[in-house]
Amino acid sequence: MQPSTSLLTFTRRWGLGVGALYGATFSTGAQSQDLGRARATITTLAAPAMHGRGYVTKGEHRAAHYIRQRFRQLGLRSFTPHYTQSFPIAINTFPGRCALAVDGKPLVPGTDFILEPHSGPGHLSGPVTWLDTLVFTDEPDGQRFLDRSLQGQVLVLRHRDAERIRTLPDAFAQHIAQAAAVVTLVPDKLTASLASQQVTQPRLQVLASRWPARAAQASLQVDARLVPNYLTQNLIGYVPGRIQPDSFLVVSAHYDHLGRMGKNTYFPGANDNASGTALLLELADYYARPENQPAYSVVFMAFGAEEAGLLGSNYYVQHPLFPLERLRFLVNLDLEGTGEEGITVVNGRLLEKPFRVLEQLNSQHRYVASIAARGRAANSDHYPFSERNVPAFFLYTRGGSKAYHDVNDQPQQLSLTAFAGVFHLVIDFFAAVAHQ
Ligand SMILES: [Zn+2]
């Protein structure tokens, strides 16, 4: 999922007890299935061997290999050789060293600091200097800042000021680019991301509480490499429809994540989005059983490069494998690992009728604690489809673990409270769409 403020402003409406009722087991048609396999999928995808499913040590290729194997075991059909739709991306990567020490004391990558997505490389040591907040309000002070050389210095900005820089004349951003390195102090949590460009200097985010108030000297070693033409992929398999095989329902989930930040730190991405990938695979397992063959064809799209800016789904809508007009509904799954507070449906406010179907199914079966509707949001892979008028919902779970785009997004944090509920909701919803 793409960073958005709304994600961080959950409301707590349900106690923890509700989830226990729904989280324990779920049945896949003929047989009852516990959450063990889903949990194992999440653990595999979030393991160090997958390197955070990013672009260092080919983590995303390893994840793709695993998904391909699972598709093959289920006997899914393929539109392309090996379920693969390849596409190139430009991506900034951090393959080597990632170290920061302040006054000789090392900080811990991932926990105390992270690199900004577009950080450049640099091995240096320099005096610490602050951006004086007065530059925003006092013109002579701003001019003094511009007149002072920043060469060789590590410039420290408060989070709020780093954002306010944009309100100043371009000369300020250009001047700041002359510093040896830029450190932004963030108040509560580190949130990593990816970029397709690179700036010339190292740029870091440091937790404000870990930065010594009177720091005089900082030294850092950052290896950053911009890869202009990295070939990654979407993985797409399907189960043909029994009655109308040229009508398509789609389950999508991105399998990529943020990868590595230096040799010793990686982002597991258990909730984002090993959980959605695991749910996609459980749904594929359901539909692949002969007794559950759907009326319409059901397609499973595991998208790559979502974290790099919805690149896989954008590529897909430009290179569709069947006419987009034949796509009756897409359900995108991203952040499916919790659910103590129920789920949210992006586009639920726009597509009122199908949203009412979801609500009715849920009030009938009590699959999840609550279903909230949201409007349009460009925060995951449903968005490029919505923009092309394909009916699409994005379902994400709420409550539980707050780890997001950080090193704490680990499998053991996930309750999977709404996992089974969403599984059933999607199956019932698809059946309702196909019966219209
Ligand atoms: Zn994400």
Automatic annotation (TrEMBL):
GO BP annotations listed: proteolysis
UniProt xrefs under InterPro entries: M28_fam (IPR045175), Peptidase_M28 (IPR007484)
Organism for this UniProt entry: Hymenobacter chitinivorans DSM 11115
Protein name: Peptidase M28-like protein
GO molecular function: metalloexopeptidase activity
Gene3D superfamilies: 3.50.30.30, Zn peptidases
Residue ranges of domain Peptidase M28 in the record: 234-428
PANTHER family associated with the record: METALLOPEPTIDASE M28 FAMILY MEMBER (PTHR12147), PEPTIDASE M28 DOMAIN-CONTAINING PROTEIN (PTHR12147:SF26)
